[in-house]
Amino acid sequence: MSLISIPFIVFCIILLITYYRIDGKHQWKVLLAFSLLFYLWAGPFRIIFILISIVSTWYLMKDPKRSHFIAVILINLGILIVFRYSFLAGIHDLFIPLGISFYTFMTIGYAHDCYDKKTKPCDDLFHYALFITYFPQITQGPIGTYEKMHDQLLSVHKYDIANIKEGGYRIIKGLCKKLVIAGRLSYYVDTVFSSPRLYGGLTLIIAVFFYAMELYADFSGYMDIACGISKMLGIELTENFKRPYFSENIQEFWRRWHISLNEWFKYHLMMPAVTSKWNKKISKVMYRIFPKAKKGTIRTVFPLILVWIVTGIWHGAEVVYIGWGVYFAVIMLLSVCTASYVKKFKTTLHWNDENTFIKIFNVLRTFIIVCLGEVMFRAETMRDALDIYKIIFTETGINKASITASLIPFGNGNQAAASAIIVFLMLSGLFTVELLQEKNAAILKKHRYVYGGILLVITALFGVLGQSSFMYQAF
Predict the structure, then answer these.
(1) pTM here?
(2) Which of 131, 313, 325, 339 is 20 to 30 A from 345 (CA-CA)?
(3) Of 159, 177, 193, which closes a domain?
């Protein structure tokens, strides 16, 4: 059931009426029933595997000893690997259970927290089942933690018109991002990336820029819708984006983009890897080879590589995703390893990071680094990605012919001109809003219902209907 479909709207209306009409102590049962119904809508057989994950994890972590924790990892990763990477064994027709990547992270994260005694094991199977299946976050996250979600899901929530209004505004904002911005950019991006060798450097640069905007509008748009629905129910989901394209360095970017995923990797993979025995042994050897290097830097080298390779593989086992992971691993390592030298260099030049022009330079530099990496993320093959890089760096020219050619993927004649104007206005509007909120997060809250009405009109006029899926549902 898509979050941008009529059945889903009906589903939410019935849920809200039932949720607030029933006795408060039974609200969590309503959420569980509707969450399971939402999951069943994707196909009756898919629910078998999430139930296996839920029951096995809950039962084993009632006694969170090491062998049980390892068993949880093997069971959940085993199911994930079978469905996500079966094509490596020549099997191409397996269906993929809804949200398997996200709920696998949630189950392993819960098990790890129980094993480390950061979270008390859940006593009730159905309470734990609600945490895993809660429908707004099951398909694309955010990756919730049991500690943050448990009390919210089980608490009594009284009807509050302020929550309904605020949630509704958030949903409208998400729909506008998805249907207007991502929807219109996707046509251009899909057209160019399907045959990248047919286009010149300027067109490819525009397509790469549009893809970065499309990915953000699509993914953050989903998060707006999911958070908005949750807000209507009185439940706060973890924010997954914080205006990432205004980041001044690559570390900051990944603290602002897909926040819940990056926090998961930090607490459940990076930190355990840094403190592991194998990393300590490797670090000692590396420190003998590089005695002038900081010990803290040496200890993070291999964990960083591990995290980014796993991140790439999590998105897919194709070479492009692994290349994407390696690319950002190298960028992050360079940033970490050269930090002290860069600091000395800035001091010598009297470089002031608070200067407005330097801030703009830092933001543009970070954005370009991200866009270059996203070429591999979007390209269908590594050969396509390499060809795109080659054309961009060797065949880019700005002249009348190249500008005219860059309009071709928009369509023909008046259609191309109209599409280009609409895209320009929508991206300008998105940039303006994000910039205002970067300076003052609460700046648009006072008249958000007016803005909501404007966004609803824009969505009705310019939204691309018929798009039932979000980009990150593929992961």
Answers:
(1) 0.92
(2) 325
(3) 159
